[in-house]
Amino acid sequence: MNEKYSALRSNVSMLGHLLGNTIKDAHGEPLLDKVEAIRKLSKSARAGNQDDREKLIDELQNLPDDELLPVARAFSQFLNLTNIAEQYHTVSRHCEEHICSPDSIDTLFGKLSNSDISQFDSIQAVRDLNIELVLTAHPTEIARRTMIHKLVQINKCLSKLELSELSPSERQRVEQRLEQLIAQAWHSDVIRQQRPTPLDEAKWGFAVVENSLWQAVPEFLRQFDEKLTTHLGEGLPIDASPVKFSSWMGGDRDGNPFVTSSVTREVMLLSRWKAADLYLSDIQELVSELSMVKCNDQVRELAGDEHEPYRAILKDLRAKLTNTRDVLDAQIKGLSVPNFGIIDHVDQLWDPLYACYQSLHECGMGIIADGLLLDVLRRIKSFGVHLVRLDIRQESTRHSDVISELTRHLGLGDYDQWSEQDKVAFLVRELASKRPLLPRDWQPSPDVQEVIETCKAIAEQPREALGAYVISMARTASDVLAVHLLLKEAGCPFRMDVCPLFETLEDLNNAESVIKQLLSIDWYRGFIQNFQMVMIGYSDSAKDAGVMAAGWAQYRAMEALVDVCEEAGVELTLFHGRGGSIGRGGAPAHAALLSQPPRSLKGGLRVTEQGEMIRFKLGLPEVAVNSLSLYTSAILEANLLPPPAPKQDWRELMDVLSEVSCEAYRNVVRGNEEFVPYFRAATPELELGKLPLGSRPAKRNPKGGVESLRAIPWIFAWSQNRLLLPAWLGAGEAIQFSIDKGHAQQLEDMCREWPFFSTRLGMLEMVFTKTNIGIAEYYDQRLTDKSLWPMGQKLRDQLQEDIKAVLNVENSAHLMEQDPWGAEAIRLRNIYVEPLNMLQAELLYRTRQQDEPSPMLEEALMVTIAGIATGMRNTG
């Protein structure tokens, strides 16, 4: 056993033992023996024992129907517990140096001290810090809210067990609590019975804020402040808010018919209610803490003659927050609303508390002020009175449909048939006009009415409640202007950031000309007040062209947009639509940010945190503090010590790699008529649609082929059968093509000197480590028609060739040499993922033989899907 990982392994082993006790209590010794036998066979098969592999397959193919579900649940639950142990290990006191790298912010200041960056520039970069994490409810988050709460509790128990001074009876009590939690999880539904509503998704997001971020943000800012004081001699200003949060949950209507204007309104009320509720708990605690009597004149004025002035101010706030919660509660439930004075602006919270803070400092009680009161002030700056700001996202054609229906009604012709030039001229004229465009007697169709109602819902809100209006599948300047016009017609009293999302390869390549055109319009330049946000789509571009071509198109689009906006004197914020998986732009955050073009983070960072990655990166307070530190250090480093711009010959070679990889990818995905039937048979793609994960349908068009699939189920399906095709197809082929053309040395130079390229290869290595050729072949043999076997064999052969090509460029003997902890984490889970894979193939085989599969078989299949997703970690 590798001693490096002993603390982690002992936790995994203890949790596994406690799970075994639960299984034995629930299903008896024979089932536990069977699970244990399968685990041992899997371990032996992983080590290369072919006989045990055959025995494992035989054991799983002969499981009686009534044992399929408990066996699937056993392995799925074990993976959940392994993930918890691993996540906990990265923040535990036993975390060895090779895993817990030195603090990222301290490391950055070490680099800065050896550079010629002045202290002034460093302080300015800190002041300019602007990190906005956008929580999105993509349908990859398997864990239900009740489960997430149990995971947090298990984490607390692991933390207690680390304390060496525990008495035997204390240790026994903690282990007993752990076993209770594991039993609770075992006897609860792992899978939701119904698809969540957008409201459920929003509540899940609020739970992440309440259980983790509410603690993590002030703790992170406290640590960051101490480091800044140490390294720069100057801490964070008290009103600094380098980190903010937005959400798509309840605002993202792209292809989701269940997100309506009334849902959006309700989610915004719930968000405010949750904020008031959380502040109320904080204020209640401060009431009991701040019983001091000495104060300055300002606090005396606010408190009147009260003997305990701070308490008087806090009790007044407590009453207002209670009223706020009651009023919002009545609005949410549609009851008559009490006529109370409520808190609806951030200053109503900030001003009295900041006055208390200053007074305590002035009266020699700074140590008290810098405790909970400072944390609450920092929460107010990060979360405001709305908790999270809501983004609105809608597909571009939904806006042009509104204007088309309107122009036809007004007898102006069909807007959709006009040239882009005519559309822009019409939109600019109407935007500059003082008269309303929407006629009073107009009865639009339901779809059009819904878009107008959404714009009205935006207009009713204060600006600080909202993030950006994101236009998916944006292609032209008129797509952006159309949204501005609809918001104007809805009576929106403020300037909303309307953010085009460029998603396909072609749209990324055209992004520069679209923004250039917009910035050349006088009305537009005046209106945006020199601030432009643009969203870069990672998932759809990769689905369209493969990861290598998409990655280069994203890089070039960002470079071009930075140049265009700098030239025009416009501040640009790039919004990154990254998913968790590599096929959707996912990568370790630090590496991904440092591999972006120089100057692309000057306007701050706005990035989506999606699905289950929210839980892995932000779900526990300690882990969230680490994640926020990583983001902060990466942005400061990117802005103060930017990566080199690529040399001209690197660019030329990237153009070739992009072209060759795109062609190779599309030849398979679009050009081979056997591909779609193979995809449907060899993966659980069709069955995924039944899994009640997210609130939105799996397809934009239920009758279409691969192109109509959403990027998430496309990636998700391939991660289940362990081929992970979208995350590598085309990339290795392009690299091998360039080696054959004599560019090996150049590729090695790029790998060594250019973060963009080395990060690509690192991402490919991680993907290759997670693939499993034997499992993918087993799915083919069990599930696909023999006529499709050559197709699968060809793809697996290609995968092996691609692995060799990448290792060749990196001069590595085996995958993930530079990341032994990552490789160990994958290896640790594989023993439990592989039986689930084989069990899933068996369940797919059995359910596809039956017209009406039994609910138990279907549930067992869903559990394997969830379990493999947990084991693979970044599913979508």
UniProtKB/TrEMBL annotation:
The keyword Lyase applies. One of its GO terms (molecular function) is phosphoenolpyruvate carboxylase activity. Its EC number is 4.1.1.31. It catalyses: oxaloacetate + phosphate = phosphoenolpyruvate + hydrogencarbonate. It comes from the Bacteria. Pfam families: PEPcase (PF00311). The active site is at residues 138, 543. Keywords: Carbon dioxide fixation, Lyase, Magnesium. Its cofactor is Mg(2+). The keyword Transferase does not apply. Homotetramer. Forms oxaloacetate, a four-carbon dicarboxylic acid source for the tricarboxylic acid cycle. NCBIfam families: PRK00009.1. Belongs to the PEPCase type 1 family. HAMAP family: PEPcase_type1. PANTHER family: PHOSPHOENOLPYRUVATE CARBOXYLASE. This is Phosphoenolpyruvate carboxylase. It comes from Photobacterium alginatilyticum.
